[in-house]
Design the sequence.
């Protein structure tokens, strides 16, 4: 299995041969306010940010930018946690979740949709072409086909092989998801292989949008939906304040309305960093006994362009892109 660091190298090499050499990893959060700015979860957020930045830096809207950014990992055949090469559920079916939101409150989402390579774009159509916010399963697929999205078999041979490997023991433990466990030492069949692309963008005028896309937990029950397509859980954006997105064990994020909580904490005066820390600590307090086995990470961006990130476990990384640097990658601070 391609691990996260190798994936980063591969995707950046495809995007620009010299990009890897420039990529930096810093322990501290990026200083200061800067607009426009794009931020994303995980190492693969670097390439996603660059996709969004191409749109934003040429005068495109924040909504177009976040959609373009989210499509980058969705299309990546080496990414087993987002889009077409994602790991399937326990029945071997690849089901995808995605949401998109802009800062004036418009939003759309799809959950447990099969056979559609770019769920983020279907989520945007739900937002723009229907009176609804969320379509699921067969209904989401039917809508996507009506909207001329191609129906494809998305299960990559490598993902199918990993699933067959997992089937030998069929153990499902939706627990820790630190980078070390998931990617550094991971191997095909590991139960912990899951990560979501959450991306937030702010333009020069302080307008925001966000996108979130994932194949969810590998080997999940068929029909399981995580936080990513749930507005207020995996994603929330408000032009008055800022935006937030999450990664990790989605059930914990849904239980605490995590991204909404982060935005509301910012509204009450907390910085993006303080807001992410409080949201994570609330989960840790509620899950005293099991927190050591759980991973949840929040990433926030306020309308001034300030960034915050915090996770339960070490290993959560996030990418920041603005006019001064398009490939910065940071290690988030953590509670444990
Ligand atoms: C989910 N939050 O489906 C997603 C998965 C994820 O790191 O982000 N894992 O629960």
Sequence:
């Amino acid at each position: 299995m391609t691990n996260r660091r190798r994936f980063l190298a591969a995707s950046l090499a495809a995007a620009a041969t010299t990009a890897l050499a420039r990529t930096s990893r810093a322990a501290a959060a990026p200083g200061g306010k800067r607009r426009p700015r794009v931020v994303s979860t995980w190492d693969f957020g670097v390439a996603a940010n660059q996709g969004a930045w191409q749109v934003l830096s040429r005068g495109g809207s924040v909504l177009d930018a976040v959609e373009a950014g989210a499509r980058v990992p969705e299309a990546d055949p080496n990414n087993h946690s987002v889009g077409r090469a994602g790991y399937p559920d326990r029945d071997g079916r690849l089901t995808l979740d995605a949401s998109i939101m802009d800062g004036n409150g418009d939003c759309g989402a799809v959950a447990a949709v099969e056979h559609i390579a770019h769920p983020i774009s279907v989520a945007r159509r739900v937002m723009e072409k229907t009176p609804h916010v969320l379509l699921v399963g067969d209904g989401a697929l039917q809508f996507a086909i009506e909207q001329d999205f191609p129906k494809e078999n998305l299960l990559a041979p490598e993902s199918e092989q990993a699933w067959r490997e997992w089937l030998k023991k069929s153990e499902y433990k939706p627990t820790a998801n630190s980078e070390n466990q998931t990617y550094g030492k991971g191997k095909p069949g590991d139960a912990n292989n899951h990560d979501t692309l959450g991306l937030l963008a702010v333009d020069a005028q302080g307008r925001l949008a966000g996108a979130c896309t994932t194949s969810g937990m590998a080997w999940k029950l068929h029909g399981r939906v995580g936080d990513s397509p749930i507005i207020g859980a995996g994603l929330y954006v408000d032009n008055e304040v800022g935006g937030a997105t999450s990664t990790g064990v989605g059930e914990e994020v849904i239980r605490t309305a995590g991204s909404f909580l982060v935005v509301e904490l910012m509204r009450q005066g907390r910085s993006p960093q303080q807001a992410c820390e409080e949201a994570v600590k609330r989960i840790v307090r509620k899950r005293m006994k099991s927190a050591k086995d759980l991973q949840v990470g929040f990433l926030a961006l306020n309308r001034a362009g300030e960034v915050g990130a915090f996770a339960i476990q070490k290993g959560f990384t996030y990418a920041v892109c603005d006019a001064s640097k398009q490939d910065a990658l940071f290690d988030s601070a953590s509670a444990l």
In short: The chain has a mean pLDDT of 87. The longest strand covers residues 96-102. The chain is about 35% helix and 25% strand. The chain has one domain: 31-334.
